[in-house]
Amino acid sequence: MGNIKTLDLPLKTTPATIEDVARLAEVSIATVSRAIHMPEKVAASTRQKIDHAIAVTGYSANAMARSLRLGRSNMILAIAPDISDPNFSPILIGLEKEARANGLGLLIGHTQGDPLRGIEYLKFMNAHQAAGMILFTGYVPSDPNQPAPRLPPSVAVVEPMAHGSIPFVGVDDRLGARKLLELLLAHGHRRIAFIGDSRARLAHHRRRIGFDEGVAAAGLRDSQMVLDSDGTLEGGRAAIERLFLRDDLPTAFLCVNDQTAAGVMMGLTARGYDVPKDFSVTGFDDIPQANFLSPGLTTIRQPRTAIGQEAMALLLRMLEGEGAEQPETLLMPDLIVRGTVGPPAPWPLNRKGFAKGS
């Protein structure tokens, strides 16, 4: 069989292990795991040797069989702060799809934003009722009065972890913000406000960084405007009210997410302005409601299902003993152009902080 090596293995009464496959194929355990879960990343000749070794040993890559053999749960726990968030459900679908394909089940721990609930779920983990963890929260649940918890293999999604303590899979937030800014610049905007700066949400702060980088590259640093917001509909509307107290307005708004953008559009409409005739507005995330705003919101689409699948694939490799190759896996954002971006309105149309016609 060409360069495939065949060995006589000693008679075994226990199921074959991934170590047996690696030894027979003369590759590392990590390479066997990669060939099983991500075959496109393994050379064809190496896959052929691994496939032959699997056939000879009778090794089962089914995660349920592995969990029974190792005395380990075949469930993965996903801890999410708000399962009603429209960004979460497609990621959960991707997680479940990849887990199911590998014989695992997915449990969802809904904290409802309550850190104490997160601690309870972590106790569940430490009781060996789940093999690994997916974190949507951006932090590890902990009790300041207790020792730091022992974590199982874990992967973060949606929100990166501070200091890169857990590998992260998500969208490239900085690149997404740059794409939006470049679109606004291409339409002639030079006075652009970023709405939604936040130090509490690392993903949102990265979008601010992308905005800053784009402004600097365009030589417009002196004309940039940045307003804090909490990422909600009301936060976007309130930002517009604060901005109109000034006598110095932008012609376009680059919002940290779609909820903020919807609030900005509400605030502008309430003052009698038209989007995009008077002001242009962009969002980020492409939640389902973005297409049903009037006009439809120009935004960045996250590949959320792909994020879920990639995160679960990484966790599976970690459960096999393979470390994360890099602290972050960032997927490409897609620019979705709809109806909220146009050329700047003639200058002094939106200069005064009053409703049109007042």
UniProtKB/TrEMBL annotation:
This is LacI family transcriptional regulator. One of its GO terms (molecular function) is DNA-binding transcription factor activity. Residues 16-70 form the HTH lacI-type domain. Gene3D superfamilies: 3.40.50.2300, lambda repressor-like DNA-binding domains (1.10.260.40). It comes from Neogemmobacter tilapiae. Keywords: DNA-binding, Repressor, Transcription, Transcription regulation. PROSITE patterns: HTH_LACI_1 (PS00356), HTH_LACI_2 (PS50932).
